[in-house]
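Example for tutorial group B:
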């Protein structure tokens, strides 16, 4: 049996009707991801309210848990409905009078539907602000009330965030360790009981755990010291205080209940669990919080995997707590394998985790993730997103820890290279749109699969599922150069004609390859690969990022940055100074300006430093970021002037993930793009 659907109405941030929280689930492991306050913990708490937990912790409902729509009063009623599928024969027997019969894909399936309802107390003057909840059954909540005995069969195992694992594994009354061990088959069924009227056992190790406890109690009673103390107490003290026909007698023994289960629990409460240096070590081995948390989780899974009754549900909040990244990956791999195993009763453990860890998110299959955003659930499994089967296979291979940040962001900027990854956050900050402040994650896909990552956020059925309200901007190059650029950037030797083979056979394109409106068609096709809902693709206005920056007004800046990138090794070695490098770059750039090139030709000469002269784009971006930061800091450049000098698609992409910019002020003397452009000279 497993939870097939969760529906929550009027609980905390979840509304009612079409604003209710609905999450379909499958067997196995499900991870809830998303930013803080999206509703992940509210889902876990809703499950705890309905099911209860094995640690017997009571989660009390507070009046503030009732949803309050904007500008309205708190809701009067919370309704949480759980639908269970996959019932075994034993489940059907245990819940016979509460079952419902669902028709799924034309077939009838036995289901258990539990609707938990809690109401506010409208009676004035009452100290009880919330009425006792009801557990109703039936598809419409009009079936028999679920009694306490049936509810006890649905309790879940819950591991809270920032767990105190050492306390849970320590000895003591009501310890979690004793609760786990008491229901473990090996503890309960292994060995023979002790019979105090028979001869002492030949081998005490063959006794059951309870038998060992009884044998130890018997040996205490037979101890000579205890016998003498008892005799002295009876003869020297109680006998003189007794009447002739009412003698007082004392018995000294180990305290304990008469019922086997209670005696076993009392015995197990004396045990503790600790890590040792090796399998045969007697002393405990000092371990940190992370290792002890793994031990605690292993103990809980031991019970869940071994038992043959009870509801096999494990809820874990932030399993990454106290674990370093490699431990996190080991844990998640282990949990996935545990969820795939069958128990003795033929059931699988259902595991629901919440996490803020990109490590865990990257290690899970994408279809196992559910993005929680704005109080709504968005499963990322096939059929729910715009991703195809090949997209899922691709993302399984390439969705690493760095890229998994996209699951925890308020906005996402997807780029194709290191230069964009380095430069765009700096440009955004200089424009007053700090990505950290706006919760923007920059995801560098390395020129491969940009559309695949973007389609993670696009719903297959947006009418039914809603739209993920996370703006996603994809930035991609146009990859079409000016007609005279091949000779400038070193694609062709001077005087060498353009190869006659079809453009599709070349690794580069020029604008002449796209007659009429084909260039705009190419732009539209690139944009359409990942645009829709809250996702938008921004295609370079001209060619590439570096070229477009030079083309639109930062030609001198890009030339200086590329020159510094080329000289980087010599700068690091101290054989040349930055001032000298910049002076030479400024002189070379001014010579290009004096040659009266048109904009496209001038920008091509700037871009040639990367294509022909081997400047690193990533290093150039780093230097360009530093140059712009210095000019803003010294007042040489301001945010408004910089925005005017940037390509329009860059500004639009930043606005998409941070909010629209105000129109630039129309002031005299505003900074102008550099440089002044002379008349066209295509032959240059």
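The residue assignment follows.
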């Amino acid at each position: 049996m497993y939870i097939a659907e969760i529906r929550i109405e009027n609980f905390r941030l979840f509304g009612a009707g079409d604003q209710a929280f609905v999450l379909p689930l499958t067997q196995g492991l499900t991870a809830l991801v998303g930013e803080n306050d999206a509703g992940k913990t509210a889902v876990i708490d809703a499950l705890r309210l309905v099911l209860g937990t094995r640690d017997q912790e009571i989660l009390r409902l507070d009046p503030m848990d009732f949803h309050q729509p904007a500008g309205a009063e708190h809701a009067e009623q919370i309704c949480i409905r759980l639908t269970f599928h996959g019932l075994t024969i034993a489940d059907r027997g245990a819940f016979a009078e509460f079952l419902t019969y669902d028709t799924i894909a034309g077939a009838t399936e036995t289901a258990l539907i539990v609707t938990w309802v809690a109401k506010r107390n409208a009676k004035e003057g009452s100290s009880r602000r919330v009425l006792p909840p009801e557990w109703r059954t039936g598809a419409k909540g009009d079936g028999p009330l679920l009694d306490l005995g049936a509810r006890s069969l649905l309790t879940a195992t819950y591991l809270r965030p920032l767990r105190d694992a050492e306390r849970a594994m320590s000895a003591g009354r009501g310890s979690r360790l004793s609760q786990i061990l008491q229901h473990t088959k090996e503890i309960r069924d292994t060995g023979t009981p002790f019979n105090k009227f028979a001869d002492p056992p030949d081998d005490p190790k063959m006794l059951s755990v309870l038998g060992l406890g009884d044998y130890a109690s018997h040996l205490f009673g037979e101890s000579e010291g205890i016998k003498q103390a008892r005799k002295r107490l009876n003869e020297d003290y109680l006998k003189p205080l007794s009447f002739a026909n009412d003698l007082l007698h004392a018995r000294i023994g180990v305290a304990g209940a008469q019922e086997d289960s209670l005696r076993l629990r009392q015995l197990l409460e004396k045990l503790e669990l600790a890590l040792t240096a090796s399998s045969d070590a007697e002393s405990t081995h000092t371990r940190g919080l992370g290792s002890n948390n793994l031990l605690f989780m292993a103990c809980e899974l031991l019970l869940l995997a071994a038992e043959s009754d009870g509801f096999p549900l494990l809820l874990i909040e932030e399993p990454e707590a106290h674990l370093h990244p490699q431990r996190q990956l080991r844990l998640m791999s282990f949990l996935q394998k545990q969820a795939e195993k069958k128990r003795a009763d033929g059931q699988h453990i259902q595991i629901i985790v919440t996490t803020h860890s990109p490590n865990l998110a990257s290690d899970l299959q994408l279809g196992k993730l559910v993005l929680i955003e704005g109080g709504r659930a968005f499963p990322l499994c096939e059929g729910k997103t715009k991703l195809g089967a090949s997209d899922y296979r691709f993302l399984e291979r390439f969705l690493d820890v760095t890229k998994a940040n996209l699951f925890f962001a308020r906005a996402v900027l997807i780029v194709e290279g290191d230069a964009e990854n380095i430069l765009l956050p700096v440009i955004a900050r200089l424009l007053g749109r700090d990505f950290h402040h706006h919760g923007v994650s920059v995801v560098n896909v390395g020129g491969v699969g940009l559309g695949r990552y973007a389609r993670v956020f696009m719903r297959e059925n947006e009418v039914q599922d809603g739209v993920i309200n996370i703006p996603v901007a994809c930035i991609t190059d146009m990859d079409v150069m000016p007609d005279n650029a091949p000779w400038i950037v070193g694609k062709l030797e001077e005087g060498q004609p353009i190869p006659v083979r079809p453009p599709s056979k070349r690794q580069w394109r020029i604008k002449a390859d796209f007659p009429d409106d084909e260039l705009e068609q190419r732009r539209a096709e690139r944009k359409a690969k990942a645009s829709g809902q809250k996702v938008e693709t921004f295609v370079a206005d001209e060619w590439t990022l570096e070229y477009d920056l030079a083309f639109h007004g930062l030609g001198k800046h890009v030339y200086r940055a590329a020159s510094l990138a080329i000289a980087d090794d010599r700068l690091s070695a101290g054989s040349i100074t930055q001032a000298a490098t910049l002076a030479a770059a400024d002189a070379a750039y001014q010579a290009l300006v004096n040659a009266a090139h048109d904009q496209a030709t001038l920008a091509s000469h700037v871009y040639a430093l990367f294509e022909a002269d081997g400047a690193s784009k990533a290093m150039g971006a780093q230097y360009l970021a530093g140059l712009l930061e210095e000019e803003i800091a010294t007042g040489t450049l301001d945010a408004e002037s910089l925005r005017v000098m940037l390509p329009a698609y860059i500004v639009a992409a930043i606005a998409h993930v941070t909010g629209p910019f105000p129109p630039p002020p129309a002031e005299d003397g505003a900074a102008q793009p550099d440089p002044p452009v002379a008349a066209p000279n295509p032959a240059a």
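The chain is about 40% helix and 15% strand. Compare this with the pattern of hydrophobic and polar residues in the output above.
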